[in-house]
Amino acid sequence: MKEKIDTRTRILDIAEAAVLEKGFEATSIEEIVAGAEISRGGFFYHFKDKNALARAMLERYIEVENALYDDLFARARELNDDPLHCMLIGLKLLAEMLEEMPTGHPGCVIASTAYQDRLFDEGVRNLNRQAILGWRKRFRGMFEDISELYEPREPVNLDALGDMVSGVVEGGLVLQRALREHNNASEQIMLFRTYLKLLFAPR
Amino acid sequence: MKEKIDTRTRILDIAEAAVLEKGFEATSIEEIVAGAEISRGGFFYHFKDKNALARAMLERYIEVENALYDDLFARARELNDDPLHCMLIGLKLLAEMLEEMPTGHPGCVIASTAYQDRLFDEGVRNLNRQAILGWRKRFRGMFEDISELYEPREPVNLDALGDMVSGVVEGGLVLQRALREHNNASEQIMLFRTYLKLLFAPR
DNA sequence: GTGTCAACTGGACTCGCGGTACAGTCGGGA
DNA sequence: TCCCGACTGTACCGCGAGTCCAGTTGACAC
């Protein structure tokens, strides 16, 4: 009946919510400790400084995001074995997921950290980099499978095409945040989906 | 022989360079006044606070960016009257321009401000929003002209397609920053270009 | 030549926040 | 019983934003 979540996780939960809402700099340690109902000393017991917090948050975020992609495309795979259709279904699911988020999606931490750069140390920046490279690899692999069966109508660099998935999502989230609209990201994904349909259309 | 640029402009120049390099928060007023060789008092004489600086920077940045697009597509227009080819040439020019920037492009202030949100007041956020809406309108107009001559192979929302130009650029710049690579943005634009070629291909 | 005004300089001060240091408390195993 | 990990609480430092304000300097006005 231990319903008390461990403190470190609680700090991360609260910090994540706050950071996604208003950015890392704008989130003070003061309000995190208030939310988590611990003392400032308690915070620094778990994280030596704000950078350590950022690193832990990013690690967790990337893990969740990857698990989410795993799950999404696994479900897509169950619905259709063909790699192209699997990709198309996966993107549709992703778009739907983004749309269903009532608050209009957390917004990707990657972009946020990328643009605050000097605030973070090498460790954080590297994590960020590795996450994107991981997605590149994942999507590149899927596009390789696809192009074995469907010859692309125009020559494309598969790494760049893999990056485009991340890029379209990131870009969509930026637009969404800046415009205060709520479905730009999912719209952009759907547009990217029609791109793939055209690119890999059977002759 | 007055080679001294007026102080306000000098502040903006220095602030812009610093902000693009390391982000808004990480840029202190101290270093701006040092760079501009004025006193702290002098800074606050021109800008009542950091938010006013942000607003002025955004205004100037958006103006420059718009002038750049005007020029780019005017040149494209000179090379080819057809709206589709004009668009394709313009995007090519844009990609080349991004590639030629030795430091790997300033990186768009829009994304940066979008993700730091609460740091800025309503004025700054609104400027940001208006800039993106302006680009939507500009590109939507171009796509309307195109689709009058070339029926799209798949149904697309032209507003969303207009947003995709901004989104692809923004997303590409995010990747570029995070990966520490230098040509992701231009690569993404070229990929988007092949999308348009496929989408508006004559039957 | 005097006045006025914009464009500053320079210094003193407040406040919030990140970060340090460290002494003390409290509950749960060995 | 003792130890240890997980804290609490407090005092303190430095930095950067922002305020206040008194004083200087140079240009132009009359």
TrEMBL record, chains A, B:
Organism domain of life: Bacteria
Record Pfam families: TetR_N
Keyword DNA-binding: yes
DNA-binding region, residue intervals: 28-47
Domain HTH tetR-type: from-to ranges: 5-65
Gene3D superfamilies: Tetracycline Repressor, domain 2
Any one GO MF annotation of this record: DNA binding
Matching InterPro entries: DNA-bd_HTH_TetR-type_CS, Homeodomain-like_sf, HTH_TetR, Tet_transcr_reg_TetR-rel_C_sf
The protein's name in its UniProt record: Toluene efflux pump ttgABC operon repressor
Species: Roseibium album
